Fold these 4 entries.
Entry 1:
Amino acid sequence: MTATPPRTSATPQSVGSAETAAAPPSPSGQALREIRKGVVAMWWGFFDWIAVVSWKKLLLVWLLALILGGILQHPVPVILLALASFIVKTVAGGKRRAEIAANEAVKRAEREQLERTVVEARMQALQAQIEPHFLFNTLASIDQLICTDPPRASKMQRTLIRYLRSAMPQIREGARPTLGQQVDLCSAYLEIMAVRMEARMEPVVRIPEGLKSAVFPSMMLQTLVENAIKHGLEPKAEGGRLEIVAEVGDGDLFVHVIDTGIGFTPKGEGGVGLTNVRERLRALYRDDAELIIAVPPGGGTRATIRVPYEVAGT
Amino acid sequence: MIVRRSPAPTAVVADDERLMRDQLVAQLKEAWPELVIAGEAANGREAVALVQGQEPDIVFLDIRMPEMDGIEAARALAGRVHVVFVTAYDQYAISAFDQGAVDYLLKPADPERVALTCERLRARIAKAPEPMDHLLAQLSERLGPAASAREYLRWVQASVGSNLRMIPTSDVLFFHAEDKYTRVQTPRFEALIRKPIKELIDELDPEEFWQIHRATVVRVDAIEQISRNLRGNQVLHLRGTDEKLEVSRSFNHLFRQM
C-alpha cells in the first residue's frame, strides 16, 4: 500500500473548490458542474476509504505522507489532512462502515431475490405440463363409465379434478412441501391409472409414517411416477408393479420410484421430465441433492431422489 | 389376396384399455347391429395375431398400444383388412387422412361420427382392402420424426461398483478407453461402460462431444481452459475434475481458434 489514495483525493478537491469560486457564469459552467460532481464523488470515495481502512494502514499512510511533505518542504497541509482523517475516522467511520455493509447486504439480497424469482417462474412453467394423451384418455374413460357405472364415473372425475389441481401452477404457500403431501398428490394420478390399466398396474406405496413430515420438493415425485407408468409400464403388454419407497440414511432422505416395466431407453424424448427434475434439484440444493437412475438386476427402472433430510417446520 | 365373403361383416377391436374397447364395441353395436365383433386385442401384437386367425373385414386399431403400436400393426396387416385408427388425442393429425383409404375415430366418438364411419365401411368392405403403404409411411413419419433423423445417446448405461446406472450425457466430463471398456467420468464419480469407445463415439452427439485423442472423448461444455504442456501439446482443463486431458496432435485443429 502507498500513500496515493489520500493525496489524489485531497489535491483535486482544493483545486476544484478554488475554481468553482472563481468562475461562476462562464460557458464552461457545464464542465465545472461535471468537475464538481467528480470531486464530490472523489471526496466520498476518500471518506469511504477512511471509514473502512484499518488504523494500521492509516498510520502507515500518514507516515509516508509526512515524509513526502517533509521532502516537499510543506509538512503543514499534510498534518492537517492527517488530523482531519483522524477525526473523520473516529467520529463518522463506524457509521459509514455500517452503511456500506448494509448497502452491500441489500444488493446481495436483491440479487438472491431475483435469482429465486427466476427459478420459481421456471418451476411454475414446468409444473403446468399436463400430458394431453393422459387428459384425453382419462376423459374418454370417464365418458364410458358414465354409461356403464355412473358412481364410478363421478369418483373418477373428482379424482381427475384433484390431479389437475395438483398439476396446475400453485401460488406458493409459506409452508414447505412435505413428502406426505407429494405422495397424496401422486395418489390421484395412480388412482386414475389404476382404473384405466386395471390389473396391468399394481401400485405399492411404502412410506414410513414418520417420514411423511419430511421436506420434499413439489412435483418431482409426480414426474417420476408418471414417467414410470408412461415409459415403463404402459408400453409393456403385461404391465407390472410400481413402488414408491422412502428411507433415511446418512442424514439424507431417499425416495425411490421403482417399476418393473420395459426398462429405461437411453435415446429419445423420455428424458425431458427427468432433466427438469435434475435442474430443479440443483436450483434448490446445489450439490446436496441428486437424481439417480439405476437399472435393477431384474429389469425395469429405479429412479431415486436424494435430498437432505429435514422435518418441515423446524 | 384373400377373397372371402361371410354372411355377416366382422371386426376386431384393439385397445390396451378395456374401458375403451367396451365403449367402442357398445357404440358399434348401436350404429351397426349386424357387425359381429370377432375378437378384442389389448396390444398391437395380439391384434395382428387375431386378425390373421379370424380374418375379419375390419380392424379398429388404437394408435398408442404396447408391444406394437397401431401404425405398425396396420403395416403388418396391409391389404388383409380394412383399417380404422382410433385415438384419444390426434397428436399426429390423422384427421388429415379423413377421406383417404384409412378412416379414424377420436375417442370418445359422437354416435353420429361412429355412424358415418360405419356407413363408409359398409361401402369399403365390398371391395378388397386398399394397399396403404404410402399412407402408412406418411403416418409413421409423423409419429416419429426421429426415425429418419439420427438419435444420439442422451443417457449412458454404466456400472458404478456393482450397480448399473443411467448417467445423463450432460453430466459426463469425458470418456476414456480402457481395453474393451470405457471409463466415464462425472464430477461426482467414475463408472465403467461395457462398450469400447469406438462404438460409443458413433452414438454420441458430435455437437456435444469431441474426440481429442484416440482414447479420449470430451464433453465440449465441460472444457474450462486450454494450456500447453512442456512438450508443446495442448492440455484441456475441465470443470469439476483435476484430471487434465492431453489433446493428441491429430486433433489439435479443434482448438486452433481458441
Entry 2:
Amino acid sequence: MRSQESSRTTLSPSRRLSAWLLVLIPAAAAVPLIPYATEVSHFAVSMFMQTVTYAIAVLGMVVVLGYAGQINLAQAAFFGFGAYGVALGTVSYGLPFWVSFAMGIGVAAIAGGILGLTTLRLGGHYLAMITISFQQIFDLVAVNWIALTHGPDGIAGIPRPSLFSYELSDDRAYLLLCTLVLYGLIALVWWLPQTRLGRAMRGVRENELAAEVIGVHTLRVKVTAFILCATLGGIGGGLYAGGFAYISPDNFNFTRAVEFLSMVLLGGAQSPFGAVLGTTLLILLPEWLKEMPPSLQFIKDVYLAIYGLAVILIMVFMPEGLWGLLRNGWKKLRSPVPVDTTSIPKLELDIPVTDATPLLKLEGMQKFFGGLRAVDGIDLEVGRGTVHALIGPNGSGKTTMLNVVNGIYKPTGGRIIIDGQDVSQKAPHERAGHGLGRTFQNIRLFPAMSALENVIVGAQRDNNPIEPGRPALRMRAMSALQFVGLADKADAIVRSLPYGHQRLVEIARALAGHPKLLLLDEPAAGLNQTEKMELVELLRRLRSGHGLTIFLIDHDMGLVEKISDRITVLNFGKKIAEGAPQEVLRHPEVIAAYLGEEPANGVA
Amino acid sequence: MALLELRNVASYYGNVQALRGVSLRVEQGEVVTLLGANGAGKSTALRTISGLLRPASGEIWFEGRPIHDMAAEKIVRLGISHVPEGRRIFPGLTVRENIMLGTSNRGRLPKKQMDEEVARMFEVFPVIKPFGNALGWTLSGGQQQMLAVARGLMARPKLLLLDEPSLGLAPLIVQQLFATIREIHARGTTILLVEQNAHMALSVANRGYVLETGEMRIEGSPKELLGNDEVRAAYLGGHAAATPR
C-alpha cells in the first residue's frame, strides 16, 4: 500500500511538467512563425529580432548573476565582441559568416575568463567597478581604434549567413533561426542549475566560504560562470550583427550593459524564462508608451519617466523579478510532494583504522593577526577513530585554530599534517578532497537551496568514493539526511528550517562528503538538553559505528565529557592542559580560567 | 495589571504559522522564561513582542496599552529592548560604539553619564574590555554574544527580551552572565528570557512557560516545571520517570 502510494507521488511532478510543456511548446513554436502567417511590418520584425538577440545576452546574466551571484556590468562588451567578430570577419577580412561568428564568441569567452579571474581577489562592489572599467575600455577601443573597428561610424553591409546551403537572407527565415537558437540556449540554462556545476554555482552565490570548505573549487566555478556568460553574450551579439547588417560602438556601451542588467533583474535573475520576460518587456514597454492614443498624448512626452518609474516599482516590490512572483504564486497552489523515505540506503561511512599514526597532527602551529597571537605554537595529535575536544575561554583561539586546520587561514608558522600529508599550503577545497569535513559556529548553509541540494553539494566533492552520476549523488545525500533524521525534510528550503535542524543539515552536508576527519565548531550551541542528548547519540554512532575521527569545539562540558576521548584546553592561543576528560576538567588552571566554581551545567 | 500581556496571539513566517493563539503574562519585576524545542516559536514570540513581526491576530498589551500595531522603533522607545539570537552586532563599528548605540532609545545622554555606563558594562563583561576600540567583527563568537547583551542592557529597558544569551559562551562566562541577569533583575528590570539551557533559565526565573509547535502548553513555577515529567523528558534531557520499559 505504502509503496504504491509513493510511486504515485513520485510520478506526479513529471506529469505536471508535461502538462506545462503541452501548453508551452506549441505556443513557443508558434511565435517565430507569426511573420509567415500574417503581414507584419518591417519595424515589428526588427523589434522581434532585437528582443531575441538581446535575450540571449541576458541569459548570460542569468548564469553569472542569477546562478553564481557575481555582478557583471560588462555584458554589452561581450555582446560587442560577438558582433564585431562577425562584422570585422565578414566585412574587413572576407571570412565566412560562421567562422567570424565562432571567432567573435571565442574572443568573448577568453575575455570573460580573464574578467572572471579577477574574482580571485575581488567581489561585490569592487567586482562591479572592475567590470564597469572593462566595459569602458571596450567602448574606448571601439570608438578610437579606427583602423581596426572603423570607429564611431561603425561597420555596414554585414552579410547574412547560409545554413546547409540555404540562404537566410529573408528576415523571417533568419529570425526563425535566431529564435531556435534562443530556445536551445533557454533549455541549456534551464537545465544548468540541476547539474554539478550549477549546484556549485548556487553554492558560491549562497555562501562562498562554505562552498569552498566542502570542496567546491570556487574560483574555477566563478571563472566558468563568467566564460558561459560571455559566450552567451557573444552568441547574442554575433546574431545581432547578422540581423541588422550594421553595427556601431553605441550599440555596445555602458548604457546597454545597464539595460541588460535591468532586464535580468526585472524578469527574474534566477530563471531563463525571467530573462526572456524582462528583455521583452523592456524593449516593448517604451514602444507601447510611445503609441498611446491621442487622448493620452501627454504620456508620449513623459514616457521615459513612466518607463523608469515602472522599473523602480517592480524592483522594489518584486525583488525576485516578475518570474519570481509568478513562480512563487504557482508554488503556493502546488501541494508539496511527500518524500519517500523507505528505500534510502544506510549511510556508508566506514573508515578502517589502518595504523596507529595520528590522523591529524599539528606541529608548532601559529596564527598571528598583526600583534595578536591568536594561535601561538600549538602541537597537537588527534588519534584515528577518536573524539578530541578543544575547549577554552571565549577568544582563546579555538575557532581560529579550526580555521587554520581547514585552510580558511594560512598559518603564520608550523605544519598541519592530515593522514601523513602536509596540507599546510593547500586551499580549503583541496583539503576537503583529502577527507576533511566541517561545520560552522554560525551555521553556514546555502539558505535558498533545499536541504537535499545543500547535502548534494557536500557529496559532489573531488575524490568522494561514490559512483559517478546524479542518482548516486542524490542517494548519498538522502542517506546522510536519513542518518541525522531529516530525510523527510529533504525538499524543505533550509532557511525555513528551525535552528537545530539547520545544524543537523550542516552535519549531513559534511558527512555526505565521506570525511575521514570531521571538524565541528560548537555543534551543541542553540540545542536544548534533549536535543543535545540526541547529538551525543549521533556523534557516538559516528565514532563507534563508523570509525570517524572527530575534532570538536563546544562549551557544554556535560557533552564534552560524555563523548571525548581526549580534551585540549586553550587559553590566549596556548595549550594549558591536555588529557583524558576526568583529569582535564579537574585541572585547577582550567577551572580558574574556564569552568568556574559552579558545577558543570551541561547534559546532566 | 501585568506589565506585558499577550492575548491569543498568532504569527506567521511567510506561509508557516509559528504562533497559534499564544497567551502569556509578565508581571512587573518578574523574570519569566520561555522554554521549548527548536522551532517551537520562542524566538518568534520575542520578535512579535518587539514589533519585528506583526501578529496576524490577537493582542499585545504593554503597561496597559496595546502595542501590537506599533512599529518596532516605537516599541523600543516605550521601554522594551530586544537582544536577538545570533550576535547581531555592528561589525564595522568599535566595541565601545556598539555599546553606546544601545542607548539610541533614550535620547541624548551627557558624555559623562555615557562614559560611566559604558565603563559599567565593561565591569560586567571584563572579557571584552581590552577590545573597546577594536572593530566588532574582530571579536570571537562568544565575545560578540557578550557585546550584544551589553548593548541591550544599555537601553535601560523596563522589559528586557533576551533570546538565548548563553549561546556559545564558556561555562565560566555563562555563570557570570546569569549572575548579571540576577543583578539587573534585582535593580528592577523585568526580563523575558528564552534559553535552551533550561536548568540555568529556571534557576533565575520566577515563572516559566513551555511552548510546543507554536502553542502554549504548560505554565508554572520553576519548581513545578522541574518536577513535571513531560518537561523533564522534552527539555531537560531527563527521562520520563514513570515509564518503565
Entry 3:
Amino acid sequence: MRPKKQGFLILTILAVLLVGSMFLASAFGAVFILPVDIAKMSLNKLPFVNLESTWQPTHEIIFFQIRLLRVVGGALIGAALATAGVLFQGLLRNPLADPYIIGTSSGALFGATLVIIFIPATLSLWGFGIISIAAFLGALGAVFLVYNLALVAGKTPVVSLVLAGFAVGAFFTAITWLILSVSGEFQHKLGVVFDFLLGAIRVNNWLQITVAACLILSGIVLARFFAFHLNAFSLGEEGAAYLGINVERDKLLVLGLGSFLTAYAVCLGGLIGFVGLVTPHAMRLILGPDHRLLLPATALAGASFLVLADLGARIIIAPTELRLGILTALIGAPFFIYLLRRHRKEYAF
Amino acid sequence: MSELVIKDVSFSYLNGFSLRQIDLKVEAGEMVALIGPNGSGKTTLIKLAAGVLTPRQGEVLLDGASLKSLSRREVAQRIAVVPQYFYMPFAFTVGEVVMLGRTPFIRTLSGETDMDHNVAMRAMELTGIEHFSSRTFNELSGGERQKAILAMTLAQEPKLLLLDEPTVHLDINHQVAILELVRGLNRGQAVTVIGAMHDLNLAALYFDRLILLKEGAIFAEGSPSAVLTERTIHDVFGASVRIEEHPLAKVPHIILLPNESKIDKP
C-alpha cells in the first residue's frame, strides 16, 4: 500500500489541475476573458476583498451568470460519473462498467423524462426534486436489472455485462424517445431533447448548482467509506464474505450510491458516456487499484476531464456548439474498444 | 485453536442437491479432510462451516457459539477460507492482496496500522513469498498465487482454516508445498484445519482424519487406513483400486487399476 504522504501529494496535484482546467474553460468561449480578470473577479466575491475593477462589466456578467455555472456544473457531472464508474467497476469486478455503457444513465433518463412529460408542473425545475428522485429510481432499476441479467455463476463477466447493459440501455433510450415523440412538447423543445439524449450541461441558476454540489459532494464523500470494502470485493462476493464483509448490504448500498450519482449527473447533463470508463482506468494505471486513493483521485480527474471536454465542445466548431456527449464518445469509444481487446482472453471460445 | 461442531445440518440448493443430516465434530487442533466424488457435498460443507451458507436445519457451532449469532466480521476474525481459485480483476500487488487478509480487523476509515503490516509480513515469511511482495498478483503462477492466497488467510490469524480443494489446479510440486505449509501451520501455529480434498492419496498423506461423503451424506469417517479401503472406494466412487501401504508414511496409498486387458500385456 502506498504511503499516505504520496497519496496526499497526488490528490493535491489533481486538485490544482482541476482549478487550472476551470480557469481555462472560463476564459475561452465566444468572448475571451483574461484569466487575470477571472482571478480578480472571483477574489472580489470574498468578504473583505475589494479589488479595483479592471474588467469590463459585461465580462463579469458572462463569467458569473453563464460560464462559471457551466464550468462548475461540468466539474460536478464529471466527478459524479467518474465516481459512479469506480463504484460499479469495483463492485462488479469489471473495468468496463461505466454508467453509460451498462445502461444506468439511460434508466435515469427514462425516469426523469417520465416525470417531465407527465407532470408538466415540474418542467421548470430541471434537475430538482421529483425529477431527480425519478431519475434515481430509473437508474437503480436499470442497475439491478443489468446486474441480474449479467450474473453467471456468481460473477458478472465482461461480455454478459456489456450485452445486458446495451440491451437495457437501448430499451430505456427507445422508450424515452417514444414518450418524447408522442408528447405534444416534442416539436417545441427539440433542442432540450437533443441536449438530454446527446449530453449537454444544462444549468440555469446558482441555486440549482448549490443543491447539486451538496448532494454530489456528499455522495463522493460517502463513497470513500466503501473504498476499503471495495478492495475486498475484488476477490469476488464470496471472497469478500470470507473477509468479514456483509456482502448483500454493501452491494445494495454501493449500487444505490452509484445510481444516485449517475442520476444526478444525468439530471444536470443528460447522457454523457465514457467519463466513468476513461478516468478510472487512467487513474488505476498511475496510482494502482487501491480504492482508498483511487476514489478521490478519480473524482478530481473526472471533473477536470469533463470541464476540458466541455471546453472542447464549445470551441471546436465555434460558433456552433458540439454536444458534450458526442465529444466524450469520440474520445471514449476507441478507448472502450481498446479495453475490450485487452480483455478478449475472457470471452474467447 | 478452535473446535467446530456441525450439528444435524441439512441444506439444499434450488437445483435439488442437498446435504442430509450431517453430524461432525472437529476438535481444536485437528486436521481433517473431506473427501468424496464431485457433487458429494464437500464444497457445500466448507461453505456451511464458513458461514456463507446457512443450514436449513441444524446449526454450526464455533467453540460453542452458533455461527448465526456471530456477525460476518466476527466470523472472519476466527475462520479463514482458501478457495480453489480467485480471479483478480485489478492489478493489486501480492503485498496488497495479503493485506486484504487484515480486512476483518481494520476500521474502515483509519487504515492499516503497524501491527497489521507486521502480521502481513510474517504471513508472507511463513509462506516464503516475501521476496515477491511487490509483484502483481495476476502475474504469478498458479502455485505462487495459491501461496499468496494462503498468506492472505494467515494474515487473518485464523483459529480455523478451511480449504476448498486448495491444490486442484496445481502441479505436484506445488501441491506438496501447499499441503506442507498447511500442516506446518496446523502443528506449529495450532490452527485447526478442515480441507475438501480431491486427491485421496494427498488426503491420506497429510490429514489425520478423513470424512468420506457420498451424495450429500457422511458415508465413512476415521483414520485414513479405516476410511480408504478397497470396499469403500468401490462403493463410493465405483472404481476398482488396490490399497497398498505408503512405503514411508505408513498410510494407505491407492493404486489405480486399468482394464484387465492392459495388465495382461507384457
Entry 4:
Amino acid sequence: MNKVFENFKQYILPFGLNDADFDQLVNYCSIVHFQKGEVVMEAGVKQNAIYFIYKGIIRNYVNKMDGGTSIYGFRIENMLITGYALYNYKNEYRAKLTIDCLEDCELVSIPLQALKFMEEHSKVSHMVGRFLAEAHALELVDYIIDIDTKSLVDRYDNLEKLFPNIHQRVPQHMIASYLGITPVHLSNVKKSRKNAGVQNAYNETPK
Amino acid sequence: MLDPFINFNRFIKQQVEISDAELEVLNKSCDILSLPKGHILIKAGEKQENLYFIVKGIVRNFIDTKEGESKIYNFRIENMQVTGYAPYNYADEIKALVSFQCLEECLFIKVPNLLKSNN
C-alpha cells in the first residue's frame, strides 16, 4: 500500500475499524497536495471532506472583527483537519474556522460521504466519529480554559508538547496570535523565561 | 407534579432511536436530585461518576482563573445536559474541566456514567 494511506491506516485502525472496513473507506479517499499559503477550508463555506495530514503543518484561524486574524490551533502530521465542519450538520457542514497551509502539504482527502457510508455499514465506525468529536471538543475547551487558568510560560511550553518542533516550523507572530499576545510581548516572555530559568517567569494575563 | 422523566426521555428520543423498554432500563438507573441555590454540582478537576439533565432550574458553567476570580463561560437551563466535559475526558480519569453551580433551586436527573460504558 501507498505510504500515505499506510500512515492513515495506522492512525485510524486503533479507533476500532478492521482491515476490511479500512479497505472500503480508503476506496473513497484520495491524496491531495496543497502549496504553502493555500487555503484548505474557509470559515462559513460548506465542506464535503475532511483531511488527514501525511506531511505538512496547517493553522486554524478566524478573521477578527477588527480585521486581524486569531489563531486557535495548529495541526501537524498524523492529525485530522476538520474545521469542525463535519459536526456542523445543523448548518450544512459549514467550516467554523479557516485553515491554510504553513508548508507544502500532502493530505488524504476523506469525503463526508465516505464517513456516512462507513456509519451505515460498519458497526464500530460511529465510535470513530464519536471519539474524534469528543477529542476535538476537549481540545478547544482546553484552549479556552488554559487562557484563564495557566500562565503564559506554561501555555508557551505546552505548545511544544502539543506540536513538537513547532517553533522551527511556524513564524513567531503566529505563535503570538495563538497565545493571544503581541509578537513583542512574546519576545519579552522568551527573554524573561531564559533569564529566570523558565519557572514562574511570567504570570500576567495576556493582553 | 409532572413526571420529571418525560422531557428527559423526549430529549433522548430526539437524538437517537431507542425503544421504550431501553428507556425504562435507563430511567431505572437514574436518580432525581434536588439542590438548593448556590450549590456546587460539579467541581473542575474532580472525577465525575454522573452527568446531569436539568428538569428545572439554571446553572452557570465557570472556572476559577489564575487571578483568583471566577469566569463564566456559559449557562445551562431546562432540558439541557450538564457534563463539565467529564464524560469525554477519559484521557484524564473522567475529570470535569469546568465547574457548575446552581443559580436557582434546581431539579436534576442524575445519569450514571457506568451505564454509558455498558453500551
